[in-house]
Amino acid sequence: MRYPDDIIEEVRSRNDIVDVVGQYVHLQKKGANYFGLCPFHNEKSPSFSVSPGKQMFYCFGCGEGGNVFSFLMKYDNLTFQEAVKELAQRSGVNLPDVDDSPQAKAMRDKRQVLLDINREAAKYYYALLRQPVGAKGLEYFKERQLSEETMKQFGLGFANITSNDLVLYLRNKGYSDGQIIEAGLASHDEKFGTHDKFWNRVMFPIFDAGQKVIGFGGRVMGDGKPKYLNSPETMIFDKSRNLFGLNFAKNARAGFMIICEGYMDVIAMHQAGFNMAVASLGTAFTSGQAQILKRYTDEVILSYDSDEAGTKAALRGIGILKEAGLKGKVLNLKPYKDPDEFIKNEGKEAFKQRIYEAENPFFFEIRIMEGQTNMSDPEAKTDFYKKIARKLCEFEEAVERENYLEAVAAKYNIIQEDLRRLVQSFASQGGIVRPVERPKSGIQAKADPGEAIRKPQRLLITWLADEPEIYSKVRKWIDPADFADDLYRNVAIDMFDGLEKGQFSPASVIDHFTDEEEHRRVAELFNTNLVKIETKEERNKAFRDIIYDVKTTGYERQMRELKMDDPDFLKKTIEGKKHLEEIAHAKIVLDD
Question: Does 226 sit behind a cis peptide bond, omega within 30 degrees of 0 on the bond before it?
């Protein structure tokens, strides 16, 4: 259940998008709009536009766009409801409960209690680290060369050697044993009763993307087992769908993220200025974590330990990134084991160079295979080349496959044609790929046949949004049903209805869509580049051409959907053709 439309509109109208976005992006006014560097991709020239008139943002570089809710959802990884709530608090709008049922309220209350308990535990561990009982924990962090500022930033703490310190503290705060256990901070058995989950450990609070403490990781002091212990799964903590350090890394805007194995690796990298680092939470990297990363970047660098286990994790991670549609690279840390060790010995400039030189995942996999092959044995060497050919068959795009074939042939001194025949042989057996046919000159990109149909529809919607006064001219010829694209048609319905009532707002139209991709597409609709037209004659002709194109696609869609046995088939066919002829011969004048 979502908030009522009138409440959403009130919240949106009280939060000027220029003011809100301006808190995150440095904006400069150019003409009617404001421009700045896009916070959603790496760029040097401002292509990020904020329109005070439309109350929308749009990036002409990466295509991200939407209204004030969309911006917060994308920037801070919030749900729509969370974005509404945050902006309501900012503007003093009182929100009703989304669901007033006893069950829903109980669930919200329970979740909030668990968050409160974890927050109190984080405060307790943080304070304990700075007391005499936390001396050995503090000494451990200082030995790892962490500054006081870094320890404070990550909220690092210490769990006392006694087994019920935290339980007693939380009881005094009014929480029951059952709630403390449900928060993942205590266990219960007959011998010890309710006792702390963590003791004699340095503590790493785990934050969600909204800066709420949802769990903890603890490293034991001394030789106890297990060396690292994480909070169990709870209502607020899902290991497979969270990442350590994401609360900071999501705002790095480096154009990529680095994922590593341990908490200390992340912390050391952030301290050295590499604030795009995150780590999985005591588990192997998951597809759910890859999808989270995809919200913030399209490229991920894997930085795992350089031992055998780290190599296996990297190979597995490459596959997960590929499935998620993310570009992947692999960081070479040798001769050091992990990022923390590398930075301590070589410094941040050397580490920055290693990031720049991060290895292409295909060549990383080939290099690992080579290391497992006795290249002096002709039979093993031939088998190695066959493995390369099989790997090349995994590329679905012919041009990409050919590029890699040329590169790997040069790297391993293989005759290109021999390798190509080997690839074709495996491909024909598996029916995977066909030989590439390179264009003789230039780059021949695939044309999208639907683009020619959609563009006039986008142009008309943008034109209407920029000049609502032409609505009466448009309405004479065009109906929302004439928009062939489903999303465009839904936008046109809202738009025409608002213009008819004299209360149209592009930003409010976006609120009728909940999917992030739909927000982007709707924003694009209202920000299509209109060609500058010099004369009235050219303007009238351009308008008539757009009207004709939109009407034509609408008519063609209607004909496709019309059944031959429809009693009005002939009538609708003739009327549609007649309207098209009228537009073609009409003298349409915009500026009477």
Answer: yes
